[in-house]
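## retry 2 of 3
previous attempt timed out at serialization; input unchanged, resubmitting
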Amino acid sequence: MSVPQRRALVASPTPPAQAAAAALADAHEWVAPEDAELIVALGGDGFMLQTLHAMLERRKPVVPVFGMNLGTVGFLMNEWRAHGLEMRLERTKSFKVVPLAMTATTVAGETFALPAINEVSLLRETRQTANLEVTVNDRVVLPELACDGILVATPAGSTAYNLSAQGPILPLGSNMLALTPISPFRPRRWRGAILPDKARIRLRVLDPSKRPVSAVADQREIRDVALVEIVIDRTRELTLLFDPEHALDDRITMEQFVA
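## retry succeeded, writing output
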C-alpha cells in the first residue's frame, strides 16, 4: 500500500506501551491524531478499541490504524517490534470493520446513542435474572427470554465476549451478526441466532424496575435501560492494518481450531 506520511503515535498509559512509544518517538516524525492520515497504536485490544472510538466520537473522517501489541491478548494488534516499521506499513493488509450503532432508552426516559465495534451486551444489574423481549425486524421472535443477559456481536467481535458466551465465530466479510444469550434459563434450549447484518434488533426489558438491566457498547455502560435498539452503522466504516502473516481474517478463522 501507499503509506501516508502524516502519522500519529498513540500509546496506552501502561509502562510497556510508554517505553515502546519512547523508542519510536525519535525514529519517525509524528503529528497529532486529529491531523493524521494513519495512526500507530501501542497497547492491547482495549486500547485499540479506545483509539477507534476516539475517532468515531470526533465525527471526522476515520483513518487506518496499525496496532502493535503491548497488552495481554492483542487479537486486534500486530506483534511489537521497534525496527522496520516503514517496511511493515508498506506491506500491510487492510480490513474493514463496520461498527454497531446502539440507541438505549433508560427507565427515566433518557436516550443515549453509542457505537460498538465488538459487541453490544445487556446484563442484569442484580442477582435476579433479566427478562427480555427480543424483536428482529419488527417481529417479536422471543416474547420472554430469562437470562443473565444477551449480546449482539460483529464478526470482528465474535471471538471476544461472544465466544466466551458460547456464541458462533463469524468470518470477516460474512455480513452477519451473532445474537447470543448469556446463561439463558428460559427457553432452555435456545442458544442464540445468526442474523443478516441488515437486521434491526430491539431488546425490551420486561419489568425493568424489579429486574434492572444495563447496556454496554464495548466499554461504555448505560444503566437502568428500558429499551435498546441495535443496527449496523455503515456510515462509520473503520480500517485496521495487519502484517500479512498475522492478518485478522486468518486469526478469526484459526480461532475455530483452538483446543
